[in-house]
TrEMBL record:
SUPFAM superfamilies: Cytochrome P450
Family (UniProt): Belongs to the cytochrome P450 family.
Lineage of source species: Eukaryota, Fungi, Dikarya, Basidiomycota, Agaricomycotina
CDD domains linked: CYP64-like
Domain of life: Eukaryota
Keyword annotations: Heme, Iron, Metal-binding, Monooxygenase, Oxidoreductase, Signal
Protein's name in the database: Cytochrome P450
Residues involved in heme binding: C413
UniProt organism field: Collybia nuda
């Protein structure tokens, strides 16, 4: 279809295939940012039967995804995610009544005004994490994923995850592993030619559907076990307060949201505890990488904690306002290499014209959040990790906190306030007590890892070694003596 108003600008396309061969499988954020230098903030790419719109600035994303959110809050159909059994799941539900139901359920539970109630869970989790990091520093990633899963499992279905060998944690890990498949969010050949999902895995083009079909069992377990666990606990009269128990009770009393179904609750719980944990531990993994690579920032953060909190106790949420540099470390960790570099794709419901550019109905609309974090007009020397950039001038550069990493409009991350709390308490507790540095090789030389990242749905640092040790005897005593009683 040739529109009267031109599409947004974009590079020349091949006939039929359009830009499909030009889009790289990895580092797409950087690729789109390079294109933006020539074609501007809103780029149009052709993929077979579809328009692919990439938004490269916060301003353009706000204009379309927020101010025109009635038109840009749909999601593209993601055949592979559905084939895996991710349905009905808020993150990928199309815009409509079922989306609104799920969104309301999740948003209500993680409202900014209410999340302080979950802090005892986050504090306890961060203390267990300190103890685990001190006793087995080599298993850093396992501890981080256990921390993130433990707080979300506790809140979503009242489960007390206390060990790294927990059978349910292994299901979560397996589900996360599935999500490491590159391109799952509208980036595989099956998204461009959905008919391919029916091919057997040995057939050319059948690789992705094969991966998705094999993952079904895991994804099913991931959705089912929280439900069975809560039912069991409710039958014994021992269910702890949780998202699932609250919603099931509402359903039992017939007083909850009328069209609520068990499937909806299972789907909502699944997306929160797996998606939320994946992004939280991924960001914490990034934090370790930055602290190892930028020791001067680590020292500055520790000096601030030593002055404000001292060494006689662990930091608490009440300290947050008095620790401006720690806030900057958190914000810079979220910006520097954000875990969802292209957010989650939106989709347009109707034809639209914006600034003389035509955006057809059904376009896949991507917010290039990685590109926004690297925008040189907003962030000086954007590849450098520099928390001070947010401090007011003349001490800092007065640059704004990043916002793009949590997405936009009616699909903005509903867990963002909770996520920031989970990250803050962990980051400040680690900085208060542990020292992170480069690991040494056999000859005693420091190992500097190459900056490498995974390229699945979420982007994490590739595995890297680092040294983690208590900062001093006082810190070791604080970790050993930390109160890990369950006060929630
Ligand atoms: C560092 C941590 C996190 C980051 C960077 C992050 C980022 C994002 C992004 C970029 C989106 C897509 C927004 C859009 O489409 O414009 C999203 C959606 C979502 N996030 Fe988060 N998130 C994080 C943690 C969490 C946590 C802890 C939870 C749960 C408590 C959560 C629950 C969700 C859900 C349910 C959606 C789907 C919303 C929808 O489609 O309407 N996230 N998140």
């Amino acid at each position: 279809r040739k529109p009267k108003v031109p599409f947004p600008p974009g590079p020349p396309a091949l006939p039929v295939l359009g830009h499909i061969m030009a889009i790289p499988a990895v580092d797409q954020g950087e690729f789109f940012s390079e294109l933006a230098k020539t074609y501007g903030d809103i780029i149009h790419l052709h993929i077979p039967m579809r328009s692919y719109i990439v938004l490269n600035s916060v301003e353009a994303s706000i204009e379309l995804l927020e101010k025109r959110s009635h038109n840009y809050s749909d999601r593209p159909v993601l055949p592979l995610m559905e084939l895996m059994g991710f349905f009905p799941t808020l993150s990928i539900l199309g815009y409509g009544p079922r989306f609104r139901l799920h969104r309301r359920m999740v948003q209500q539970y993680f409202k900014r005004q209410d999340i302080a109630a979950y802090r005892p869970i986050q504090i306890r989790g961060s203390r267990v994490l300190l103890q685990n990091l001190m006793s087995a520093p080599d298993k850093r990633n396992d501890h981080l994923s256990q921390y993130a899963s433990s707080i979300l499992m506790r809140i979503t279905f009242g489960y007390d995850l206390t060990s790294g060998d927990d059978k349910y944690l292994s299901v979560v890990k397996a589900a996360s592993h599935v999500l490491e498949t590159p391109g799952l969010l509208a980036g595989t050949i099956v998204d461009f030619f959905p008919i391919l999902q029916h091919l057997p895995s040995w057939f050319p083009g059948g690789y992705y559907p094969g991966v998705a079909r094999r993952a079904r069992v895991i994804i099913q377990q991931m959705h089912d076990f929280p439900y069975h666990y809560v039912q069991e606990q409710m039958a014994k009269g021992q269910a702890k307060p949780s998202f699932m128990a609250t919603n099931l009770e509402a359903l039992n009393n017939q007083s909850g949201i009328p069209s609520n179904t068990i499937m909806d609750i299972k789907g909502a719980v699944g997306t929160v505890y797996v998606g939320g944990a994946e992004t939280t531990w991924g960001t914490l993994s990034m934090f370790f990488l930055t602290m190892m690579l930028y020791p001067e920032c680590q020292a500055k953060a520790q000096a601030e904690i030593d002055t404000v909190v001292g060494s006689g106790r662990l930091p608490d949420f009440d300290d947050r306002e008095s620790l401006p540099y720690i806030e900057c470390v958190l914000q810079e960790t979220l910006r520097w290499n954000n875990v969802l570099p292209l957010g989650v794709p939106h989709c347009s419901l109707e034809d639209d014209i914006y600034n003389g550019m035509f955006i057809p109905k059904g376009s896949i609309v991507i917010a290039n959040t990685r590109g926004m974090a690297l925008n040189e007009n907003t962030y000086s020397d954007p590849h450098t990790f520099n928390p001070s950039r947010y401090l007011s001038k003349p001490i800092g550069k007065g640059e704004p906190y990043p916002i793009a990493h949590f997405g936009f409009g009616r699909r903005v991350c509903p867990g963002r306030y909770f996520a920031e709390d989970s990250l803050w308490i962990t980051i400040v507790s680690i900085l208060a007590t542990l020292h992170i540095s480069k690991a040494l090789d056999e000859s005693g030389k420091e190992i500097t890892p190459e900056l490498k990242f995974t390229s699945g749905v979420s982007r994490h640092p590739a595995p890297f070694q680092c040294k983690i040790e208590p900062r001093n005897k006082a810190a070791q005593t604080l970790i050993e003596g930390a109160d890990t009683t369950d006060y929630y």
